[in-house]
Amino acid sequence: MKAIEAQSLTKSFGDFVAVDRISFSVEEGEIFGFLGANGAGKTTAMRMLCGLSKPSSGFGWVAGLDIGRQSEKVKASIGYMSQKFALYDDLTVRENIRLYAGIYGLPDRLIAGKTDGLLAGLGFGEERETFVRDLPLGWKQKLAFSVAIVHEPRIVFLDEPTGGVDPATRRRFWELIYQAAERGITVFVTTHYMDEAEYCDRVSIMVDGRIAALDEPAELKRSLGAASMDEVFRLIARGAKRGGE
Amino acid sequence: MVVARELRRRYGETDALRGIGFEVGRGELFGIIGPDGAGKTTLFRVLATLLLADSGSATIDGLDVARDYAALRRRLGYMPGRFSLYQDLTVEENLEFFATVFGATIEANYALVADIYRQLEPFKKRRAGALSGGMKQKLALCCALIHKPELLLLDEPTTGVDPVSRKEFWDMLGRLNGQGITILVSTPYMDEAGLCDRIALMQGGSFLDVDRPAGIVAKYPHALWAVRASRMSGLLGDLRDKAGVLSCFAFGDSHHVATDGSLGPAELERYLASRGHESIEIGRIEPGIEDCFMDLAGAGEGR
Fold it and tell me: Among A172-181, B48-57, B173-182, B189-198, whose mean pLDDT is lowest?
């Protein structure tokens, strides 16, 4: 079974077709980069895949669940993290984990053990009772990622997880992504950093609501004669008619 | 044009600015480059006369940001990081409003914004709140320019913007700069450093260095290598284990490895082969601004 599958997935707002009949699939355990210019339709497509927005037409399956008809089950089966990580500053590290574990429906008897394991894995033993607002940015980011996968989802959606982060922290974050992928979690990630596109197994580039290109980074560079993913992106997104969110 | 001395500013327990000093010459395009939380916005707010520093001083064109704020505001154009135009006014009304507030007219200074405003003109009756992100950014730049400021302060104008639109925006800045406007711009994207005359690398409320981009690169103290092998994932850990490797991070399709003088490429290749790596490629490279930033910021624990 594919981790994600879209068939002619479409979302319209009035006359405006934000996502226009996109079809693609993501393999289990794959790191899939979902790229596109501002306004290309990435966020709308991602919201549909996460069960937050109903498709106008077409179909999509995430973890084998129909995103149109089983959106609540989809939400429970995935992890999600955005650039503005949704951690609670006024709660401690432990309380944040406890909260998310509860929200994701982990039974109480498992939560304590899960929390200890997660804190140990992060090397946060000393910080378990530290307020999240007092953590350095890089630590918050690690914690946000860890709570997004606290329920061991098969797929995690990362929406510009590294925006505005310093270069070393950004790279350490990708090392976490690799670890998750090695454990078999499928990673679906958007980014504006084109060097990060290189770290994906495959990337798609959306232009004006359609998927204009989809392949391995090396293959995209080869077929377009481009030296970098930055150049690939420019060549493909150059034809865009739409601008802005 | 801009002279800052020992600027300090705290918010509660947090030192947002820890003694910032620098100068920007007339006509320069000066970039302040650093991640979220570096203090960039605080510095811009102090220079834009919107926030008082706890200590230190800053003058723009000889006018003090604290004492001469009223006179300074006529000479500054400030574009905050967050979209701050009137969402319920149309494109045209916003521009008209900002011109009027500064005692200017759109007609008098149209030449300055024409290049950018032309792209907005088809939407001039649209409410600003209904514009796309790229269009909002262009309108905000027009509104910051319409009173013909001598200094433009642009706080993260390209954050969250895709690479194609970012390039367009920098092209616009280059043309404005060519018309004699001094520009101070901040960004978290290190690849934009090369588009500035001089840059300051900022982290934790301090400047790590201030120089021309080429000057910063020239000061990089280590030997830097791009390393690839058929199996990239295990490569990072193996490189970090090797004595003589100062830091190692993924950079696109290769790893950048900083070494001290004791470790040459031949030895590195032998070592990697002994760890079972194949198709090893090692090439000496020039550092980029990100390499320099990580080194200056003490990311040496990346080993």
Answer: A172-181
What is the per-residue pLDDT across B52-78, written as a single tens digit (0 to 9) for each?
Answer: 999 999 999 999 999 999 999 999 999
> Tokens in use for A34?
């979902």
**DSSP-derived pairing of the beta strands A202-207 and A210-215:** antiparallel
State which amino acid sits at residue A245: E
User: Chain B closest CA to A171's CA: distance in Å?
Assistant: 7
What value does the mean pLDDT take over residues A188-215? 94
What does the alpha-carbon distance between residue A200 and residue A35 come to, in Å, rounded to a whole number?
A: 11
The answer to whether A154 and A186 are in contact (CB under 8 A) is yes
- DSSP annotation of A92 reads B
Question: Which tokens in the block code for residue B163?
Answer: 């690479």
Q: Tell me what pLDDT residue B301 has.
A: 46
Closest chain A CA to residue B249: A171
* pLDDT for residue B160 is more than 90: no
HSE (side-chain half, CA atoms, 13 Å) at B20: 33
- Read off the tokens for A78: 């995935």
Contact B302 A174 (CB under 8 A): no
pTM of the predicted protein model: 0.86
CA distance A230 to B4: 36
pLDDT band at A130 (very low <50, low <70, confident <90, very high): very high
Residue A213 neighbours by CB under 8 Å, 6+ apart: A203, A204, A205, A220, A232, A236
Q: Which residues of A touch B (CB under 8 A)?
A: 36-40, 137, 160, 163-169, 171-172, 174-175, 178, 182, 192-195, 198-199, 217-218, 228-230, 233-234, 237-238, 240, 242-245
Could you tell me how many residues make up chain B?
303
Helix or strand holding residue B255 (H, E)? strand B254-259
The pLDDT tens digits for A75-84 are 999 999 987 7
Contact A164 B253 (CB under 8 A): no
What chain B residue is nearest to A192 in terms of C-alpha separation?
A: B162
Please state the rounded mean pLDDT for residues B185-204.
Answer: 95
CA quadruple A167, A168, A171, A173: dihedral sign: negative
Which chain A positions have a beta carbon within 8 Å of B299's beta carbon? 167-168
Reduced DSSP (H G I as helix, E B as strand, rest coil) percent helix, strand, coil of chain A, to 5: 40, 25, 35
Distances (CA, A) of B32 to A151, B153, B202: 40, 11, 7
Q: Can you give the three-state secondary structure of B79-142, one letter per residue?
A: ECCCCCCCCCCEHHHHHHHHHHHCCCCHHHHHHHHHHHHHHHHHHCCCEHHHCCHHHHHHHHHH
> Are residues B228 and B281 in contact, defined by beta-carbon separation less than 8 angstroms?
yes
Mean pLDDT score across all residues of chain B: 93
Residue A243 tokens read as 């601008």
Which sign does the torsion angle of CA A44, A50, A54, A58 carry? positive
